[in-house]
What we know:
Layout: H1 2-23, H2 35-51, H3 55-68, H4 72-85, H5 88-98, H6 105-124, E1 165-166, E2 176-189, E3 195-211, E4 216-229, E5 240-251, E6 253-254, E7 261-276, E8 280-282, E9 288-290, E10 294-309, E11 315-326, E12 348-361, E13 371-372
Parallel strand pairs: 1-13
Antiparallel strand pairs: 2-3, 2-12, 3-4, 4-5, 5-7, 6-7, 7-10, 8-9, 10-11, 11-12
Helix pairs in contact: 2-3, 3-4, 4-5, 4-6, 5-6
Amino acid sequence: xxxxxxxxxVIALTALTVPAYAQSAPxxxxxxxxxxxxxxxxNTEGRELMYANKPAEAAEKFRQAIARxxxxxxxxxxxxxxxxxxxxxxxLTACNNVELNRPSAEQSEKAAKLITRIKDxxxxxxxxxxxxxxxxxxxxxxxxxxxxxxxxxxxxGRPLGTNLVVAAPPDNRxxxxxxxxxxxxxxxxxxxxxxGTAVGGIRIKADYLIDPVRRLGGEAYFQYSHLGQGxxxxxxxxxxxxxxxxxxxxxxxxxxxxxxxCITPLLGVHLALxxxxxQSQIDENGTQSQVFNYAAVGGRAEVSMDFAFxxxxxxxxxxxxxxxxxxxxxSGPSDDTDGFFVGLDKGGIAGYVGFGYTYRFNTPxxxxxFVVLE
Length: 374
């Protein structure tokens, strides 16, 4: 009789305590929260930790969320955190679990891309990729090896150098960009009065963010500049066209604690191909054609103020000021190798102001896009 009574008490207590745990927990305002609400709160805390570049702490929050409500989006977030932390085996298990929990088409696509990235990271680090852990429990137990052998070691590599997440509110940690600038200004290039002092041009540019944490990047650019007619009647060339092929380095300095408004200093070098308007040659058909047969080197210094907008700050409007400098020509046609007859035996500098538009991509060339956490 005593034994039956004890069992009855245990069963009754279990029946009372389990629903209480599964249904509610104290909320800050004294109200009761469901397990789904607790999971949502833990997921939000995990996202904030990811935005703060704390993937290990974020993974623990996502595991706790999964323990309360196993949704595909929580597994996806856990996969992202573990990949960022370098725990490739646990990341693979979490991503595999996405498909087992009724994912949307978009979530399935994200998981597939992350799995590709996990495999690429393992190959790059010469690691044997072994799924491990169950996700919700944080269990790091691994599949057993052949009979009588220990299980394979965990697949833990180096943490990624880049935080994969796109934060909310959005951030401007893009990967690469394409942009166009229009500029105009004044200066002197070549002998005095050989060409006009007014200059105008256009620039096509592509940036790559080398270090997203420090916001350091590189730029490749092509720019065209035009100088008007000079006053020196002794020189046959009247105008000057310059085509520059260059590379530059830059840094985004964001203001007022927001990535929406940044100042970007830039320094670059370029090869300049110059075409004085009066220079021509006779081709095999007896017609005259202009040629770009004067070459020089130069540099570019610029500071821009950039205003970003859009869902992830992908659109950028910029105003800028800077200068293009040029050496005297280093090569020219055989009868004027130093550019004396066209006034290019001296270098010069032209200052400018301008404005531009840039579009930022968050997909590395040939890589996986940054992840928008669920």
